[in-house]
Request: fold
Amino acid sequence: MRTLLSILLLAAPAVGAELAAARSEAGIQLDGRLNEPAWRDAPAIELTQQKPRPGEPTPFRTLVRVLIVRNVLYFGFECADPEPSRIAVHTMQRDALLDGDDNLGIVLDTHGDKRTGFYFQINAAAARADGLISDPEHVSLDWDGIWDARVHRTDSGWSAEIEIPVRTLSFTPGLKAWGLNLERWVARERIGLRWTSPTLDSFLYDLSRAGSLTGVEELSQGRGVELAPYVAGRTREFFGRTPRSWQGSAGADATWRITPQVAAVFTANTDFAETEVDSRQINITRFPLFFPEKRAFFLEGANQFDFGLNMGSTFRPFFTRRIGLLEGRQVPLEGGVKINGRAGKWNLAMLDVETRPTSFAPRVNLFAGRASYDIDNHLRVGATLTNGDPSGKTRNTMAGFDAIWRTSTFRGNKNLLVGGWGAFSAGDLAPGQRHGWGYKIDYPNDLVDCANTFDEFGESMAPKLGFLPRPGVRRYMGKCEYQPRPSRDGRLAWSRQWSFESRYSRVDNLNGVNESWLLNLRPLGVEFTTGDQLGISVAPQYEFLPAPFEITEGVHIRPGSYRFNRFIIEGESSRHRSWRAASSTTFGAFYSGRLTQSRNSIHWTAPRGRFQTGLTVEQNFGRLREASFVQRLWQLQTAFAWNANLSLASFLQYDSESGNLGTNTRLRWTVKPGRDLFIVWNRGWQRLRTSRDDLLLVH
Reply:
């Protein structure tokens, strides 16, 4: 058995890893075959196993080459596989989750700041996903760049060609090297291969661990104006109320590259018809739920607005869903301008939009801006300012300041992040504390993952353009997770990694009175070598209700103090399987009675990923002193793809709270990268009852 020291030495991160991009005047035929002479002449690098056994050899040899043809980057991958028939593919859709598929990933740090960058991912069917990086642990996959890819199956595995025009990137011109890291994931074996930093503590999105891609200093993004017009046609009918109406609209987005690093995007009569519908949620809390942004206009450069250290949905001084949406209703946008970019060590972002007056809201101007400065390779400080109230009822301004220090060399090669923030509101506010502040210390590593957080929010802190579900409180959180990986030669060789976690969160009001606490203990969590997972948790909880709480229509929980214990059992089959299932059940005491929550799903994918379907059922069965209730949410998703550029997807949802059944069907045809045709059909059945007279259709 190897000693721990020998394993650490074997998995030591590559220092100063460098890859030179070869230049070619001859064009590349994008077919995934890598048969042009330019590919043979380009230098190649080989990826190394990163997990589960860092540095050890595998039969999945992976060679990568990079070419530059004029102002286009080409990445060529050759992926050996001893059993090509077992290569996992579950989808051909754009921006689908590819965790269960054999896939390739590329991260690019085009400014050399080791913090922000771009992510590109394809699976073995050339389905594409992309995103923006501003966090070393995670990536936002909502951004869409203009790029393309093709794959080719061989008797010895598969190969891929990825084409990224530099005009889809923001980068510092003349920079001698970009940050680069590369990854391959073999889904059925749960094996990850990486170019640089192939250690278990290394995140692919941690750009401080990236290598260098040289030969990029002559790349030019060009300047000038790019125009993207759109035309949309709609038909709308409320059966039994109004005749069918036909509507048409037109608008455009124009991009002006002020400098190679800074771009301004102008929008007129902005349209969001192609945006996917939200996935419905059941809410059994007293606080509003968080729904992620999906509209393309707001996602471009969204990582520049990130505030604080991994605050998630706890607090966001600027949340783009406040624009164009008001209490569930759409507010048309007359127009707006957005600026994103970088100048030296400064990162800049600004958004200003004008909404169109409606019957429920006047015309409003809304503004958000952010600037951050990189003091050195570890420390970034920033400031955020928002102004405006989407409802048009009050004056509202919020300013926030934050600082984040991070390193990937703590205790040798460990990750450590420390962040702090402060913010205050101004305008037409109720009396009380208008400011807030907080900090977070995060130690996210493979064996030990710990974090400590404190946040304070004033009761009159009101970010009308942000998201703050629980003002007037102090929030404490601490967690530590121990995740050992058993030896493959021992008695636990059937398991890949274990997880034992303790997490405690507490919320007090500003007078120091405890309002709630939650202790989550996971005595058992295991991932099997097959990729299947199983977990058991115990969650004692306390809640103080200062006023009655309507958990569902007509069911009010009385004010008072409640202490109850909850238990959680969850399991999930590996995502690489054609048939896969997941189940989670939470049960036990709940306020004045008992509540059982269950979430079950089953998915099936046809070979090669052309057709897929999945059903998710979420149900709550409550028996309280006040009343009993049942809540249900059913979601059926199906998709068929002719190829990676043409797909049809349908999302059917029903929830018992609203009594509404709705479907969203989208045909997406990418004629060529950057030119998309969407055909979207929405239909809803409201107040669905057994009586025919109660059936109302909307589409």
Summary: The chain has a mean pLDDT of 88. The first strand starts at residue 18 and ends at 20. The first helix runs from residue 4 to 10. Residues 473 and 511 are 9 Å apart (CA to CA).
